[in-house]
Amino acid sequence: MFESRVVSVTRIAFVIVTVVFVVLAGRELYASIRTASISIVAERIERGETVADDVVTRYASRSADVVDGHYCRSDIVAAGVTLVLAQLDRQNVSVNYDAWVAAASSARNYLQYALSCMPTNSNFWLRLAAVQSIIAEEPLSIAGMMKRSVALAPHDESMILTRFYFWNDFTNATLSAAKTALDSDLATMLKLGDRCRVNATIKEISPQLRPIFDRSWASAGDRVTARFRQRCGK
User: Fold this and answer.
1) Could you tell me if 79 and 36 are in contact, meaning their C-beta atoms sit under 8 angstroms apart?
2) Rounded distance between C-alpha atoms, residue 132 and residue 115, angstroms
């Protein structure tokens, strides 16, 4: 009798676990189907293929499905990020201000959702800081986002070089508020970065970043900076 009860409990537990796995698998399949077109268009953009503006607009608007569906799967969320940023990049504030505002707001809201799913994603913190910087000048807020991006990927060369692009565009107030993170990025870039990639990145330095960069350059020392004076091969 006792063994029979044990067998029954085991069978019930097995059925419950099986049902749970089937439900989860079904949800994942449904999520993949519902967001498949978003992922396809995002992949085309990431590969550098030509995607018409109306196509980007249509599928960027569908990123709301990701939020509404509470999908936090990394590939789905990342595809939405690609689309909302592509949509914002294609707006011209001088030509259609309302469309630009809508795209910027949509990008910020989506990135905030993306970070609620993946708070340790350095790139998402960087992109949110960049979007916020073009919406409104909030140095402390933007600096906080940049600090998180640096802390989460302090030695990733691709991320450091990407961040440099945005450091180069931020105002004095933001650069000052993020001084520690900025100094860390510049020091790591000069000490550990590939000289050819770094040289290509630092060809043009903004007036507000120039004195900070020059201090980092001097602090790095002659042995470190001498290698950047070497010519890069084709």
Assistant:
1) no
2) 14
